[in-house]
Write a structure and sequence with these properties.
It is built from 14 helices and nine strands. The protein has helices at residues 11-33, 69-81, 100-109, 123-130, 146-152, 157-171, 191-201, 222-227, 231-246, 255-263, 303-308, 310-320, 328-337, 341-347, and strands spanning 38-44, 86-91, 113-118, 136-140, 176-183, 205-209, 276-279, 284-286, 294-297. Strand 1 (38-44), helix 2 and strand 2 (86-91) form a beta-alpha-beta unit. The chain starts with 10 loop residues before the first helix and ends in a 7-residue tail after the last helix. The model is unreliable at 1-10 and 350-354 (pLDDT under 50).
Length: 354
Amino acid sequence: MRLVIPIGSPDPYREAWSQFRLLLKALRTRFWDQKPFILSHLLTGRCNANCQSCLWKLPAESRADELTTEQVMGLYAEAVACGFRELVLWGGEPLLRPDAPALLGFARNVGMRTTLITNGWSLADRHADVLPNVNRLILSLDAVGDLHDDIRGCSGLFRRINAALDVTLAHYGNTRVVLICVVSKLNFNALEPLVDFARERKLPLLFQHMNLEDYGAGDRSENARQIALSATESGEVSARLRKLRISGARLRDSTSYLEAMGRNSFEYRCHYKKVLLRVEANGDILDCTRIAVPLVNIKQCSLKAFLDAPGYRQFISRAESCNRCRDIGVVELSHIWEGHLRAVVNATLGAVGR
């Protein structure tokens, strides 16, 4: 029996119920069926920023391949029927899609908790449409002031992020805000001001080791490799961040993740795909163990048929042997799956990922 709390229920009650359902599903996934309960949807590959570290941005003309509003709603409704309890909406920049607020609202109405990952450019202007349907807001922030704009190739972005934070923190107390920073040669000497900024705003901050490859549409890593930290720089950053954590900074990276960052070596068996299923902007579900290889497209295959097929289990088995990702969500969740104490403790503070 699937219980549904009416949409008109009081927010505190509805929030507590949704968290409880998410916990139950997480326990079922871990100890029973190992079927994912988080839908990660790259709503669009388009973006108004131009980050050198980005592996996901697609050309503007790729819009023609994006799922329509109706197709996305169909995906979300089917996902709930298959047991998914959370939606992570990202891109590209998801708020470039005019229908993003409606899609977030639809996801909430069919029973999913929602996480929005955004660069913050248009959030202050669109907050009234967007934020009422966002449980968790993840803002990408790589530095303080003009340096962030330079890194992101988007003049005025830091000012807009500040405006978005002002309105979010003042008016949307039920939306949990997390800042996430990708560390590279472009900002590794400017991390302490960012830590101070998070402390002043009373916000949790995650530092993310830069991924050098993604399985989306082929190798987009040429620019990323040019700005990746050297082994010496990684060690220095790790030591500084661990020292800041000890001194009381609001860092949400586990000590084990920061130590792995320092070694520039991440040792884990990947269990991420048992928990999270990623759908591309065009509807592809890709094989993360191979580059640009679609397993299925949701326009031709239902989620239930995909999750029940032998090919899905074979994919999960292949993924276990891979540990190429440096994404904090992948590493931390895989450690949590296996019961690593520091990662489990950190999970109560809010690890995230794509």
